[in-house]
Design goal:
Blueprint: E1 22-23, E2 27-31, E3 36-41, E4 47-52, E5 62-64, E6 67-71, E7 76-81, E8 87-92, E9 102-104, E10 107-111, E11 116-121, E12 127-132, E13 143-144, E14 148-152, E15 157-162, E16 168-173
Antiparallel strand pairs: 1-2, 2-3, 3-4, 5-6, 6-7, 7-8, 9-10, 10-11, 11-12, 13-14, 14-15, 15-16
């Protein structure tokens, strides 16, 4: 059976999608190269809200407990109310972040282009810890489990950090 297009939305002439859209039961969220994050009604395609930020959004946003999280090329991590797009908090890392955030146990983890790994408290965006992995470009989104956060650098290092304090558990150069 051929697929039918239920709806489509325009991102604007100056914009295109760098990453995957995400969805919830009723909404879809998409980030664009213009620095815009938009929410759409999944049934009709009607835009529910949109927020324009200064940096470029290179990675997929994350939805968790009615909050949408995303990072930007100007080094900011945003938490938005998923219902209305209002800013809940913003954390300024000061360096480009092109990875999608992940959440485990009320901490949001993200990694930057200059090798910093951040753990933020999801309720207020306060820094729980950050670890410098030595000016290594981290382009892949971190992965987490109950005890560790894992990431890889473009130079071939893979590492694990302790979720609670950011201490290096191990690092392998491949």
């Amino acid at each position: 059976l051929p697929l039918e297009n239920s709806w489509q939305a325009e991102s604007g002439a100056d914009s295109f999608g760098f990453s995957s859209a995400i969805q919830t039961s009723n909404s879809a969220y998409a980030a664009f190269s213009s620095g815009k994050l938009s929410a759409f009604d999944k049934s009709t395609g009607t835009q529910l809200w949109s927020l324009k930020v200064d940096g470029v959004v290179h990675s997929a946003p994350l939805y968790h407990n009615n909050v949408v999280y995303f990072a930007t090329s100007d080094g900011k991590i945003y938490a938005l109310n998923a219902s209305d797009g209002k800013v809940v908090w913003v954390y300024s890392a000061g360096t480009a972040i092109n990875t999608s955030p992940v959440i485990q146990d009320n901490l949001l983890f993200s990694a930057s282009n200059n090798g910093m790994v951040y753990a933020l408290k999801i309720e207020n965006g306060e820094l729980a810890w950050k670890t410098d992995m030595g000016n290594e470009y981290i382009r892949s989104s971190p992965a987490v489990d109950q005890t560790s956060v894992y990431a890889a650098t473009i130079s071939g290092s893979i590492f694990a950090l302790d979720n609670l304090n950011g201490a290096l558990i191990w690092k392998i150069d491949i």
